[in-house]
Amino acid sequence: MRFKQLVLGAAFAVVAAQPALADDVAICYNCPPEWADWGGQLKNIARDLKIEVPQDNKNSGQTLSQLLAEKANPVADVAYYGVSFGIKAKQEGVVANYKPANFDKIPTGLKDEDGGWFAIHSGTIGLFVNTEALDGAPVPQSWSDLLKPEYKGMVGYLDPSSAFVGYAGAVAINRAMGGSLDDFTPGIEFFKKLKANDPIVPKQTAYARVLSGEIPILLDYDFNAYRAKYKDQANVAFVIPAEGTVAVPYVMSLVKNGPHAENGKKVLDYVMSDEGQAHWANAFLRPVIASAMSPEASAKFLPAAEYERSKPVDYAKMAEVQAGFSERYLSEVR
């Protein structure tokens, strides 16, 4: 009898534990705490929704690869990635259509009209510079400056064949050097020259490595540089290169047949709510709902005249040609 009670007790304990996990969890692929203040947003979600979203340090390419590998048995509930990867995820059939809070306020071109993906915020590509780690060299002001010998071993960029920020940087550089989405040769030639200057090429977010001075100059978004300056009180600068750049959105999707789909929907509603959007603005991103950007948050950005060098890009075309660029980068540069 005693043995039977122990067995039943253990069984009830296991059963009791399972619903708690199922009820209060949502799995997000690519919600890294050191990126775009996802760390703060995940705390807000836990506080307000009582849903725990584990931190996840994938990049956009790794996220899509994992979604494809798990298509028959999904693990994630929501995904966050650069816009070109969101477009591909929709094409590959790994996401479900869902229109979150404020969906109708998202501008055309920044969402799949059926809800397969939608922008939550955007950033502008430029140079995130640790000014104390330049060994006396001036703060670079252009893409071309990065090829100068005084910056040898100082320049970093995320792998453009995998990380969306790396690809966005390549698109910006290619256009600045005279290329287009139909012709990446100018950009490839730039990266070949930069390779001779011993760049550092991590696959995932390198925020901490800039703050430590390990990577003095990183091709990155404005929001990371502003966070370093205003939150971490670091001696950093953000430069929009003289030749021009691009602003690109990051998007989210509901994963098709995710194990905690209802929680995933609640998370997406939250990040698109007025409160969730205000969090992005206070983390130095441009929320997709423009009204969420307060004057106080806007004042921390570079002047509007600087941002005039940031031009729009055809995001659908950017997604279409990404694989071709990646192949050329891997075969000709890396």
Automatic annotation (TrEMBL):
One example of a Gene Ontology biological process annotation: thiamine transport
Reply yes or no: does the keyword Metal-binding apply.
no
Presence of keyword rRNA processing: no
Which UniProt keyword terms apply here?
A: Signal
Gene Ontology cellular-component terms for this entry are:
outer membrane-bounded periplasmic space
Using the record, list the residue span of the signal peptide; answer none if the entry has no such feature: 1-22
GO MF entries: thiamine binding; thiamine pyrophosphate binding
Q: What is this protein called?
A: ABC transporter substrate-binding protein
Species this protein is from: Thalassospira alkalitolerans
